[in-house]
Write a structure and sequence with these properties.
Blueprint: E1 10-11, E2 16-17, E3 22-29, E4 34-35, E5 40-50, E6 55-56, E7 61-63, E8 77-79, E9 84-85, E10 90-92, E11 95-96, E12 100-102, E13 107-108, E14 113-114, E15 118-120, E16 125-126, E17 131-132, E18 136-139, E19 144-148, H1 151-174
Parallel strand pairs: 1-3, 2-4, 3-5, 4-6, 5-7, 5-8, 6-9, 7-10, 8-11, 9-12, 10-13, 11-14, 12-15, 13-16, 14-17, 15-18
Antiparallel strand pairs: 18-19
């Protein structure tokens, strides 16, 4: 974790950040969240906020979009509670709600919004400004709505996050 322009990441209670991860600048992690190996997160030209019990898995890149005349607020990166972000994802200046699973290798671009209770398939591409509605599976590049989620899938979204809380607690107990 590193300071950038006077701002250092702020970690909630019980957070885990793996030693090879780089998180720099204006970043806040909610309680019991975890950052896994080789994650790169830069809150340099805007800010990143990550909710409680959210896990960011190996090789994921988290970044933001700077403020400009064209876009006075830029695009921060906002990730809700109980979100599982799979391996090697790219989240750039977007908003993710609560209880979302982002499949491995997915890309979510500037200004995109993913509402609560969504499965985003592996390798999906969410174009700039696209909005994904709550309660559905989305797949493809560019992403399309595939079908409504079944109740057991919705229940799994929270369970996936809790599985990673348990795993990060195991890692913390080893340090």
């Amino acid at each position: 974790m590193n300071l950038y322009k006077g701002k250092a990441p702020v970690l909630g209670k019980g957070c885990y950040v793996e030693d090879s991860a780089v998180i720099k600048g204006d970043i806040t992690l909610g309680d019991d969240s975890s950052i896994w190996p080789l994650v790169a997160a830069r809150g340099d030209v805007n800010f990143i906020r990550i909710g409680a019990r959210t896990n960011i898995q190996d090789g994921t890149v988290l970044h933001v979009t700077r403020k400009s005349n064209h876009n006075p607020d830029g695009y921060p990166l906002l990730i809700g509670d109980d979100v599982t972000v799979g391996h090697k994802c790219m989240l750039h200046g977007c908003i993710l709600g609560n209880r979302i699973l982002v499949g491995m290798g997915a890309i979510v671009m500037d200004g995109a919004i993913i509402e609560d209770d969504v499965f985003l398939g592996a390798g999906a591409l969410v174009p700039p400004g696209k909005k994904l509605e709550s309660g559905h599976l989305y797949v493809g590049s560019p992403v399309t709505q595939s079908r409504p989620l079944r109740q057991e899938e919705i229940d799994f979204l929270r369970q996936s996050a809790l599985n990673y809380v348990e795993l990060k607690d195991d890692y913390l107990s080893q340090s």
